[in-house]
Amino acid sequence: MNRIAGRLLVASPYLGDESFFRSVIYMIRHDEEGAFGLVLNRPSEHSLEAIFADRLGHSPKRKDAIHYGGPVEGPLMALHTLSGIGEPCGPDVVDGVGVSDEVAAESPLWVTADDDHLTMLVDRVDVRARFVARYSGWGPTQLEQELAGGGWLVGPADWESVFADAETMWEQVVKRLGGEIISEIVSSPVASDPRWN
């Protein structure tokens, strides 16, 4: 089983589930028990200020929108770059699936739903973070079936993609993945039979 934790799961045009239309998901966990990830490009109308101003006694320094992480009910979480806060959720290098040196140098990302961590992070403008309510989840073998059916593309999760503008994220990631696929095809040996052209 190729595990894709720490990678991006990108909705292909062939995905039939409307709730994931043009979604980019950061995969937190993927193992024999199923998969868990956060949609990165679905901002809601809710802001950090609306939730944290009373708790903090002041307006939080961050003005981020809270994103919808998927169709499953869940707590408010932060996917962020502040080392040691929460649980690491960087790439798994399992079954031959690896990441580039650039991505590995930036990893891991961290995820937390702890109230104290969230309260601290909303005042840290020096940290890259995406605040997400709800999540995306798959049961055992469910994601593998969707991948086999062509519903998803999988690619590396560099920080620029994970924290990109939500409006253009899907297009940027699809273009990058398409370029990587085409470069692999072009770099393949040329067929000696001209009928293959």
In words, what does this structure look like?
The protein is 26% helix and 29% strand. The chain is of the alpha+beta class. A hairpin with a 2-residue loop joins strand 2 and strand 3. The two termini are 34 Å apart.
Attribute tags:
197 residues, alpha+beta, disordered C terminus, VC0467-like
**Averaged pLDDT:** 85
- How does the helix and strand content classify structurally? alpha+beta
- Estimate percent helicity: 25-40%
CATH fold topology: VC0467-like
Number of helices: 6
Which homologous superfamily in CATH is the superfamily? VC0467-like
Number of domains: 1
Number of strands: 10
How does the major sheet shape up?
10 strands, mixed
By CATH reckoning, the class would read Alpha Beta
Beta content comes to 25-35%
Could you say which overall geometry the principal axes of the C-alpha atoms support? globular
Order of helices and strands: EEEEHEEEHEHEHEHH
Q: State the end-to-end CA separation.
A: 34 Å
How large, in whole angstroms, is the Cα Rg? 18 Å
Unreliable stretches, pLDDT < 50, 5 or more residues? 92-106, 193-197
At CATH's second level, what is the architecture? 3-Layer(aba) Sandwich
Helix-strand layout with pairing:
Layout: E1 7-11, E2 24-31, E3 34-39, E4 43-47, H1 48-56, E5 65-68, E6 72-80, E7 87-88, H2 101-106, E8 110-112, H3 115-121, E9 129-138, H4 142-148, E10 152-156, H5 159-162, H6 169-186
Structure at a glance:
With about 200 residues, this protein is α+β, with helices and mostly antiparallel strands. It has helices at about 50-55, 100-105, 115-120, 140-150, 160, 170-185, and strands at about 5-10, 25-30, 35-40, 45, 65-70, 70-80, 85-90, 110, 130-140, 150-155.
